[in-house]
Amino acid sequence: MGIKKHKPTTPSRRWETGYTFEEITKDSPEKSLTVSLKKTGGRNVYGRITSRHRGGGHKRKWRIIDFKRDKYDIPAKVIAIEYDPNRTSRIALLEYQDGERRYIICPDGLKVGDEVISGNNVEIKIGNALPLEAIPLGIPIFNVELQKGRGAKIARSAGNLAVIVAKEKGFAHIKMPSSEIRVIKLGCRACIGQVGNIEHDAIFLGKAGRSRHLGIRPSVRGVAKNPVDHPMGGGEGKSSGGRHPTTPWGKITKGLKTRKSKSSDKYILKRRK
Fold this sequence. Notes:
- By secondary structure, the chain is an all-beta fold.
- It has two domains: 3-201, CATH 2.40.50.140; 224-265, Ribosomal protein L2, domain 3.
- The protein has one helix and 17 strands.
- The protein has a seven-stranded antiparallel β-sheet with strand order 9-16-10-13-14-15-17, with no helix packed on it. A four-stranded antiparallel β-sheet has the order 7-6-5-8, with no helix packed on it. A two-stranded antiparallel sheet has the order 1-2.
- It starts with a strand and ends with a strand.
């Protein structure tokens, strides 16, 4: 996967970067594995905006991804690498020996023609899915389950990986992409490798129109507003707000603890901060 830069034909083009898409082998998605996606524009069932700065964007189809990898001991061949507009990573289309097709998150290094398999005692190879108890320490993993059989929840976005640092008393100590260390039961499954599209962080949108195409509406800094619109607005000349940073409704935005549920504290050995 490569990054391309454009000729500076306009001021916004000067810094804009994009993908070369050289790894993509199929243009259109598998029809049987897509569903239509309804847009909310950030609004809830009452039509009130609950997530700001969302709306517009290109029409998309949702690709159904197999996060459970529950087709055990049946080899599957990679027949295509595709672009997915709904996520930062690429997706791989698998065809199993019985003819069934499924999408998975594409790990770095997986190519068309490769064979992957999910099972309890399969080879430690990129794209294979195993229980944590069968994976050696220090091997990069992604698509990690938090609860057995519930599907992968951790390390699914571009370039992400987790690592098993220890195993004891039926639990694996997993170093998360955030550097937090968490304990997960050894029966949970994970895939070998690192999520592909590693250079995703290097993409610079360059202009507002590209943001709108992604469904992201403009956001304005609080200090640039008037006092009637934001607690940090107003002031003579350029002002830094004159108070602790807050939301438009006056709630502190830096340093305020917002984590309400403490039920998962017992699973966290080391916090990310």
